[in-house]
């Protein structure tokens, strides 16, 4: 509900609140409340085609050397639409909210082995130190994550 609430706040406060007015006037904001409307309506992870869209984006490690601008076999329509939308813009920043486990993730936070195990070697992004710092700062300030004992 965070994105619909943000949209409502922006609309209600544009022209009344300096921060809201500046965001509406000076930023290009694209809010996608859900990319899985079928799953959202049925309260499940999978779309109408029975695919988990959270696991449907191509993995840059598994598909190394592949032009990801070309549609891969098995890519769901919702996934493809979001990919095309993202490729059609120049981005200065992005945020992604995901229901489920309370974790802070960052770009390329997987491992070269394709597993979630560090044994395969980290797959760092050029700005990994910054991403890890931001994720750790957020997690440390979050009530539940700060007491979970995990680390970035």
TrEMBL record:
Cellular component GO terms, alphabetical: extracellular space
Provenance organism: Monoraphidium neglectum
Lineage: Eukaryota, Viridiplantae, Chlorophyta, core chlorophytes, Chlorophyceae
SUPFAM superfamilies noted in UniProt: Zn-dependent exopeptidases
PANTHER family: CARBOXYPEPTIDASE D, B, PROTEASE M14 CARBOXYPEPTIDASE
Protein name: Peptidase M14 domain-containing protein
Superkingdom of origin organism: Eukaryota
Annotated InterPro entries: Peptidase_M14, Peptidase_M14_domain
GO molecular function, one term: zinc ion binding
A GO biological-process term: protein processing
